[in-house]
Amino acid sequence: MKKPDYVKVIKIAVGAGLAIVLAERMGLRYSASAGVITLLSIQDTKKETIRVVARRLLSFVMALAISAAGFSAFGYGPLAVCVFLLFFSAACMAFGMQEGISVNTVLMTHFLAERSMTGANIANELGLLAVGAGIGVILNLYIPGKVHLIRMSQRRIESHMKEILRKMAGQLTTGKGGDAGQADGEPPLRSLLEELDAELKQGEKSAYEDMENKLLTETRYYLRYMNMRRTQAFVLGRIEGELKHLGELPSQAQPIAELMERISGGFHEYNNAVGLLEALDAVKEDMREQPLPELREEFENRAVLFQILLELEQFLEIKKKFVEELSAEEIGKFWRETTC
């Protein structure tokens, strides 16, 4: 079972009660509707809460116009409600304001119960909407930060990637370290990649929610970081596929294994990958200067190794580009130190 969001549960319960009490104190009829509006207004993030409330206010104006026309033409009966829902639902869907359908339909049924749309009745419904949505927004101004969760995800993601690179290096050194790695009690390479994928999904979710909960500051850094690691994870998956095609290991496998070990050892959020790319260029140049293989099997294995090297280059270029696109402000705010 998924762990409940206890903070949100408390907000819904307390907020609904406060909205009903406040609506009653203001003399509004159908005060329970204010509580329903509050619980429907409390979303997972601050920005989404504000967007939902804004769409409900806009759809309320549209609902007034459509219901006035419907009640005027068909009277205060079931047919008018059907006509209202027909046009109002279609309009909300067309303008992406589906959140307004249920709330405003409830408010419009109050006109049906009162059998009139006087100024006082309209003011009553507007008051219910303002009280319910207002309390929802106020309560959702407090949402616990996600930075500590994001930082934990970052460390786990980096740890997984370092382990994957280490096992890949082992496979290039001994011919083991992939799925055969189960023999030494360690998880196979495919399992590590699947665990990395799960960790990335959680990190992306936390990073998005953190961005959506910052109203006055910009925190896209964490989401961009997760996207960068996600792209690198795709590259690691391609390398894992290439490793399966290797037969006998040529001598050129050892320098690539050493490079992987070096990348694993220097793997960190603050590494700009420049030094690692220079080391990779040296390995690539050395491979190009090697005499051409004479046997077909050796040629195929050398081709696989060179493709792995190109994938590693792409892996490092992704990180280098991420660092180059950071502003000085972001580096000062999100990095506690820098590494060459």
From TrEMBL:
Domain of life, source organism: Bacteria
Q: Does the record's keyword annotation contain Nucleotide-binding?
A: no
InterPro entries (UniProt xref): ArAE_1, ArAE_1_C, ArAE_1_C_sf, UPF0421
Q: Name the UniProt key words of this record, in alphabetical order.
A: Cell membrane, Membrane, Transmembrane, Transmembrane helix
One Pfam family recorded for the sequence: ArAE_1_C
Write down the membrane topology: Multi-pass membrane protein
Which parts pass through the membrane? 57-77, 83-101, 122-143
Stretches assigned to the Putative aromatic acid exporter C-terminal domain: 150-320
Main location group: membrane
Question: According to its UniProt record, where is this protein located?
Answer: Cell membrane
Report the PANTHER family cross-referenced here: MEMBRANE PROTEIN, MEMBRANE PROTEIN-RELATED
- The name of this protein is Putative aromatic acid exporter C-terminal domain-containing protein
State the organism named in the record: Hungatella hominis
